[in-house]
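Please, structure for the following, as tokens.
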Amino acid sequence: MSDGNKSYLIGQTEVAARPLEPALYLVATPIGNLADITLRALETLAAADVLACEDTRVSRVLLERYGIRRRTTAYHEHNAAQAGPRLIEALEAGRSVALISDAGTPLVSDPGYRLVRAAREAGVRVSPVPGPCAAIAALSVAGMPSDRFAFEGFLPAKASARRERLAALAGEPRTLVFYESSHRIEESLADLRQAFGEERPAVLARELTKLFETVLDGTLAELHRRVQDDPDQRKGEFVLVVQGVGEDADARLAEGRRVHAILARQLPPSTAAKLAAEITGAPRKALYGAGPGE
């Protein structure tokens, strides 16, 4: 099949793609299992005048799986300043541009928002082609309140910044969703356990839709131990879903931990715990010795 044919394969069936109106199309692609692609996504990828990919080598696997033999152009964090204006020029010239990330929905934990903002400022239509998203997939199987949730993406790589971020989130009542990498998952679970408390319910979803998919649930302490004890649970890509604080005692304890973390930067641990308990009503014994890394 050539670019001019604008067609793709579903199984052994060749399907012609419909012409696209000029616009920037944000196309969601599978997060692991290549069968999780929508018909509209395939049609859009086959028909777009320009196909922009976060990593052309990764995207090639998906395109070849469905017989879409197209030239691609790279658009990612490191070349956005150069590639972005060229894509905007194509859009302003009346061409259609499809943007895909390595996996999942574009703009979720990637820098594509700059291109969308530039397109809107240029008066170009932006259209979503929805599909897989790791955060939503994990939330759907977590069995935690999902009517209100907060997506926090990746936590900071540096321990001090990560602990500071978690201290600020300790009193959050909404379900929290994090992404994490294999080389930081154990450290992040240890910091979450310290900031949110041993008993906070959580779900760790690993390698979603892939061959070695696992979904573990338990307290933060239990999940941390599972990851420590099983090297396989430290491999792959992770989504961590953490239940928000409850009312009354849980909320006071979470707020106490947050205040204590701030005070402990300048005061001795015992003094910080005493003041944090007085300010928030949290039990002092639960706060004393709760400094980072302990």
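The longest strand covers residues 149-154. The mean pLDDT is 88.
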